[in-house]
Amino acid sequence: MEVKKQTQALGGGVPTAQQLGAINAQAKAELKAEEVYVFSLRLCDDQVDRDHERFDTEALPELARMFVGKSGIVDHQWSAKQQVARIFEAGVVTEAGVSYIKAWAYIRRGGAGDEWIADIEAGIKKEVSVGCAMGRSVCSVCGLEYGTCGHQKGNVYDGQSCVAVLKEPVDAYEFSFVAVPAQANAGVLKGMGTGKASLKELADRFGAQEEYRNLYKQAALGQEYAGLLADQTVRLCLALELGLEEKLLRQMTGKLGTAELKALCRALSEKADRKFPARVQIAASEEAGDWDTGYLI
Ligand SMILES: [Zn+2]
């Protein structure tokens, strides 16, 4: 059966000599270290996913081997599939009781590849969609072939959740990159007709990647500021002993816009100043002024 899962690209950099050897075993022409960018990917793991399925831990090493040499493509809505990356190494890593396939892939520097490298470097999360074919799917409750026993995945039987366990890998397919826009911008384009285009995709399409990356960084900064502001507001409320629990205060500040939060924080701060004339500075309220000019979203 065909299986498709979402996963993520992690950070990367220049290949080691050993990695370069593995890359050149896959590449058509001999590549130099400065011509490639390597990054790692977390592919399938053995944990139960949203579809109430999981890969059999024992199937992972064989599946990892099948991913070596597979291409990573960008599947644009507007253009033909374009190959940008290739997996040159993959193995199973076990951490805190979770086993997963960790793969290393390379991107050739120059041209379209540079945009993907810059995005990975900027920390813009890349969702990666991977596909493979598995020979068997087994019911976790009774061990029979899933679909033949009457147990339904997602349901609980005598306290045991039914999961389909995917076994016996048959093949691994190419993977595709899906750009994920910064959260702050995610809803912006919903009214544009396609219902699917993201700001990131449009930036790629119209050559505005640099602007998008700057916007992404500013959005991250803005979110950090909003977090600090909410934090300070909660601390001030607690110091002023308003009689509200911290959990409730956090829920309340989470619902306020930045301008409202700023006004509230300022008012509380003035109140605290009058109540505790000699109080030690709470958090970083003096720095808040600097943010007024830096906060552009
Ligand atoms: Zn069953």
Distance between the termini: 45 Å
Quick check: average pLDDT? 80
Q: Strand order, biggest sheet?
A: 1-2-6-5-4-11-7
Calculate Rg over CA atoms. 25 Å
Q: Which stretches are poorly predicted, pLDDT < 50 over at least 5 residues?
A: 180-196, 284-297
Total E-strand runs? 11
| Beta-strand content bin | 25-35%
Task: Note the run of SSEs as H and E.
Answer: EHEEHEEEHEEEEEHHHHH
Tell me the quaternary state: single chain
List ligands, each type once. zinc ion
Keywords, separated by commas or semicolons:
297 residues, 8 helices, 34% helix, disordered C terminus, flat, two-stranded antiparallel sheet, alpha+beta, binds zinc ion, single chain, seven-stranded mixed barrel
Entry summary:
This protein is of the alpha+beta class and 297 residues long.
Structure characterization notes:
The protein has 297 residues and is α+β, with helices and mostly antiparallel strands. It has two domains: 2-134 and 170-180, no CATH class; 213-294, no CATH class. The chain contains eight helices and eleven strands. The chain has helices spanning 17-26, 60-67, 112-121, 199-205, 209-239, 246-254, 258-275, 288-294; strands spanning 2-13, 36-45, 53-55, 71-74, 82-95, 98-108, 126-139, 156-157, 160-161, 164-172, 175-179. The strands form two sheets. The protein has a seven-stranded mixed barrel. Strand 5 and strand 6 form a beta hairpin. Helix 5 (209-239) runs parallel beside helix 7 (258-275). The model is unreliable at 180-196 and 284-297 (pLDDT under 50). It binds zinc ion. Zinc ion (ZN) binds next to loops.
